[in-house]
């Protein structure tokens, strides 16, 4: 599997979602202190490449449905995403 590189905002969203349980999108917004528009853009980008999933399933989020969605890590990428979050020293 190729090595995953995340931007700072993407890494913050991945950390806020966590690796075990689905997290409400509103909680991700609170933990990252990002605006709704930024969260929607970042989540849609991560969903496009398959790193995270939205429950109930949707291909793309919009600001209107953000409050009622749960976000979770795609188990297929969990290990690679954990490695991507480690700081290279």
Word description of this protein:
The protein has four helices and three strands, in the order αβααββα. By secondary structure, the chain is an alpha+beta fold. The radius of gyration is 12 Å and the shape is globular.
Distance between the termini: 22 Å
Overall morphology:
globular
User: pLDDT under 50 segments (min length 5)?
Assistant: none
Under CATH, the topology can be stated as: Arc Repressor Mutant, subunit A
What is the strand tally? 3
Instruction: Just name the CATH architecture.
Output: Orthogonal Bundle
| Tally of helical runs | 4
Element order, helices and strands?
HEHHEEH
Radius of gyration: 12 Å
> What is the CATH C level class, in words?
Mainly Alpha
Helical content (DSSP H or I, runs of 4+): 40-55%
The number of distinct structural domains comes to: 1
CATH superfamily: Winged helix-like DNA-binding domain superfamily/Winged helix DNA-binding domain
Overall pLDDT confidence: 90
Major beta sheet, strand line-up? 1-3-2
Structural class comes to: alpha+beta
Strand content: 5-15%
Largest sheet: 3 strands, antiparallel
Layout of SSEs?
Elements: H1 8-17, E1 23-24, H2 25-32, H3 36-48, E2 52-55, E3 70-73, H4 78-85
Antiparallel strand pairs: 1-3, 2-3
Helix pairs in contact: 1-2
Q: Which key phrases capture this entry?
A:
89 residues; globular; Arc Repressor Mutant, subunit A; 11% strand; alpha+beta; single chain
